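User: Second chain of the day. Same drill as before.
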Amino acid sequence: MMEKESGVQETTAGNTFSICPVCGRRIAAKRVQTGREVRMRKHCQAHGSFDTVLWRGLRDWQEWRGDIEPPGEGECLRCGNCRGLCPEHKRSTCCTLLEVTSRCNMNCAFCFAGDCLEPDPSLEQVKAWIFDLTVPGKTFLQLSGGEPTVRDDLPDIVTFAKKCGCRYIQLNSNGLRLAEDEDYVRRLAEAGLSFVFLQFDGITDEVYTALRKRPLLSVKERAIDNCGKYGIGVTLVPVIVPGVNEHQIGDIIRYGIRWSPVVRGVHFQPVSYFGRIPALPEDQDRFTLDELLDAVVRQSGGLVQENNLIPSCCDHPMCGFHGDFVTLPDRTLMALTAKRQTCGCCGPEEPGFDPAEKNREFIGRRWNSGKEALLAGAASRSAPTEQDGGFTASDEGGKDASVKEDYTDMDVFLKRVREYGFTLTSMDFQDAGNLDFERLRQCSLHVYRRGRWIPFCAAYMTLFGDISGCYNET
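Assistant: Same format as last time:
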């Protein structure tokens, strides 16, 4: 234990392994706690010392993190360098991400995919990959890129994935084509697309101009509306960048509620510095998980309580949070999670327990359900108007919000949960500055490349000064 000049005690908050953000070499790292703030410190003999903030101290670090055994010296040697999952990996695959293109119809300031442009794999090649990765009746497939909708044959890819037995098929999209080509959305729905992860950074065009280089709010709204017409649930995915949109977190939640049941939830992603990045970020460039937790509660205006957001046991607790809700006719939330639960999505650990499998089923049901409600309300649901802050939608397809339902009736309650489920989740991706192998070995989001499943953060890891994608460990 050390004491800084300020008189605040500095303690070690655990040892782990990371990488040098310049050369990618695996190096020892330690977490240091000063007061309630936690930082990562590491040293590379070739490139010097690095120090980055992990936790600002707005929540109790140890209470959120819990007790987790650190990785050993010879563990996790494959997970961190794109050679596949290591023997010590703690989680099976919850979701498999498959890149079907590197092309994109945008050029965003922040993008994990970087600038590497390669020819699209053929439809036959994509089908071969899907056949190889699919476990019939179980696989949760995430189609990504680049922007997958630049492929005209994407509905054929979805059709094949369903025939192979993929249980859930998710599309990552910026929404441009979903907004402009309604027939394309119809074809995706008929092919069996389960839901859309929609890039959605805020409720004003200033945010999109800063992050995506063009005003896009009306485009996002048309994309949501088209998905609703064909029964495709949408999860809003904001990338939170300090100084740009962190003040709109509560507004994004309220916006999502007003689009329920088309919008199934919000999945926050604090900005991580990989892919298309300028330089090693300073502390002020980072938005930590506890800052996000605090902002969700504080900006929600009472819709979300602190004990409604809890760590998932599917991944490492520091990877994100989970909150399960039901939207009510008065545009409030009924919470289904509470802090005293050991795990919000997966249930208590038992012999033979597989958090990834249970989480896959949970989020699949939440993001995929409600198709009947979506289709029934599509004809009478209006797009957001100038009323109520400029981002409100009509109530549940024209249903009078004053109508009260008896949620003490189990059938009524279960129907409401099924049709109007709403999740608040997050994923705090790691970059070369803050990569922690303790977290990496509990990753359940795996990128499929050439017959290997790779933890997401390792697959997109970019070394500062070497924008070349996957790094090589020496």
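Residues 95-379+420-426 form a domain with the TIM Barrel fold (CATH 3.20.20.70).

User: Great, on to the next one.
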